[in-house]
Amino acid sequence: MNGFQQSELIIEAGRTEKQYWRDLWRYRELFYFLAWRDILVRYKQTTIGVAWALLRPFLTMIVFTIVFGKLAKLPSEGVPYPILVFAAMLPWQFFSNALGACSESLVSNANLIAKIYFPRLIIPASSVIVSFVDFLISGIILLALMAWYNFVPHWRIVTLPIFIGIAFVAAIGTGLWLAALNVKYRDFRYIVPFIIQFGLYISPVGFSSSIVPERWRLLYSLNPMVGVIDGFRWAILGGESRLYWPGFLLSTLLVFFFFISGIWYFRRTERTFADVI
C-alpha cells in the first residue's frame, strides 16, 4: 500500500444532469483554489494592496455626503450622513463588484473550461468570494465612522446576516445571467459597466428611500437592490430608519426570482460553453 487514494471518474451519457449537484461538492477543492487565486491576483503588483478596498468606497462616501448631505441637504434618518451613506455603500459595492467579476469569470477562464470537465457553476460562484472579502474589509470604515460619531448600533444589527445573505443571492443570481450571456454575446462586456453605473444612480445609495413619494415607493422597489439597501440601513441604523415592507418583500421576491432563473439559464447553456467560448 503506498497510502495514495485514487478516484475514478466514469464518463457516461446523462451523468452531468444526474449528478450535477453532487459533482459541485466533489469539486469543492477547485472552488477553494479559484477563489484564493482570484483574491491573490486582485491585489498582485498593486502599490497599496488591500487598501484599494478601503479607498474607493471611502472617497465615494465623501462625495455623496457633500453632494446629497451638504449641498442638497437631504434627510439622514436621524444619523450622521456619512453613516447613512456607508450603510448603503457596503451592499452596493459588494453587488457591483460581484456583478463585474461574475460576468467576466467564464471568458477569463476559457482555457480551463475548454480542457477539462467540472461544474462550470464553480467559476462565477468563486468570483463572488473575492467581492465578499472586499465587503468585509470595507466594513472597517463603517466601524470607524461609528466610533468617530459615537454611534451605538441598534439591537437590529443582529439581523444583518439575513440581509447579507439576500445581497449574496442577488449578486450570484444576476451574475449567473450575465456570465452565461457574456459567453455568447460579448456585447455584455460593455453593457455590464453601464448597468453598474446606471444602477448606482437609481439605487438609494447616496440618499434615503424615504424621499421617494409614497405613491412611487412600490414601483421604485422593482429595483431589487432597493430592498437589500433598505434592509442594511434598517438593521444598522435603527432609530428613525423604517422598512417599507411591501417594497422590501417585492424586492426580495425579485432577488430570488433572478437567483432561481439565473441557475436555470446557466444550467441550460452550460453544456455549450466549451464550444462557444
List keywords for this structure.
277 residues; mainly alpha
Average per-residue pLDDT, rounded, comes to: 87
Order of helices and strands: HHHHHHHHHHHHH
In terms of per-residue confidence, which ranges show pLDDT below 50 for 5 or more consecutive residues?
none
Main β-sheet description: none
Task: Describe the protein's architecture and organization.
With 277 residues, the protein is mainly α. It is built from 13 helices and no strands. It starts with 14 loop residues before the first helix and ends with a helix.
Topology diagram in text:
Blueprint (H helix, E strand, L loop, with lengths): L14 H4 L1 H7 L1 H15 L9 H20 L9 H28 L1 H6 L6 H27 L11 H25 L3 H15 L11 H7 L3 H14 L7 H26 L2 H4 L1
Question: How would you summarize this macromolecular structure in one to three sentences?
Answer:
Helices cover 71% and strands 0% of the residues. The chain is mainly α.
